[in-house]
Design brief:
With about 240 residues, this protein is mainly β. The chain has no helices and 16 strands. The protein has strands at about 5-10, 20-25, 45, 50-55, 60-70, 75-80, 90-95, 105-115, 120-130, 155, 160-165, 170-175, 180-185, 195-200, 215-225, 230-235.
Length: about 240
């Protein structure tokens, strides 16, 4: 048992001097005196700027434009019309300017905390997700048997994906991208060996991926995403 000391006075005799000693106490005796420390790595600044949120809903992707209440290097506090459970994945454009001719870049984030104000609106504490760096590309972990000739770059771009035998697309977001392959988050069921058609919607992809038209690809790996109820689908380009 861990013990701590507190000063106590000990009477050495009637009318005599007192000495200061220490009484050993269990560590639990100090539990009520512990002050909670906020685990925040960067200071927040009160700042109201436009921000765009994108997330995967039951019927496709949903977009909402809101304003920040405060900002730090690793996250923001924003108001949102609907609820989002802690841990939910989303993509953020910040600061957002709708007057830009091209869609601005987006980066992944997750909901760290949700609360409601007096008016009933939801407030979301959003934490930015920093991509892992690896010379081998991918998710930062070198897997046995994987021999990737071109490194992937962590980038979030809207993408349309459909199975080769199905005409209906799903809206997804890329996790990383290379000249030969990509990974994207999906709510659909894919299996290694499936042929899919991929169409990048925006951004400046590598020259091998053509925006605006379908690219035939092969599903090579499907992994559950630990931050959401989606799966991370890895494909390699065939055309």
């Amino acid at each position: 048992m861990v013990k701590v000391g507190r000063p106590v006075e000990e009477n050495l005799g009637i009318g005599g001097p007192k000495s200061v000693g220490f009484e050993l106490l269990p560590a639990t005796a100090m539990s009520n005196r512990v002050v909670a420390i906020e685990r925040r790595f960067h200071h927040r600044v009160r700042l109201a700027l436009p921000i765009r949120l994108r997330w995967a809903g039951p019927f496709g992707q949903t977009i909402e434009v809101s304003r920040t209440r405060n900002v730090s290097r690793d996250g923001v506090l924003v108001e949102c019309a609907g609820p989002h459970p802690p841990g939910a994945s989303l993509w953020v454009t910040f600061p957002y300017d709708p007057a830009l001719p091209e869609d601005p870049s987006e980066f992944p984030a997750r909901v760290a905390r949700e609360e409601r104000d007096a008016s009933g609106r939801h407030r979301l504490a959003i934490a930015f997700i920093s991509p892992r760096r690896s010379a081998a590309g991918g998710n930062g972990l070198r897997k046995a048997g994987e021999q990737r000739s071109s490194p992937r770059r962590a980038v979030s771009l809207p993408v349309w994906v459909r199975l080769a035998e199905i005409p209906w697309y799903e809206e997804a977001m890329t996790l990383d991208l290379s000249f030969e392959g990509m990974r994207f988050l999906s709510t659909r069921l894919y299996e290694p060996g499936n042929h899919v058609y991929v169409s990048l919607r925006t951004g400046t992809p590598p020259s091998s991926w053509n925006s605006g038209r379908e690219n035939l690809a092969l599903v090579v790996r499907v992994d559950p995403d630990p931050r959401s109820n989606q799966v991370a689908v890895a494909v390699t380009r065939l055309s």
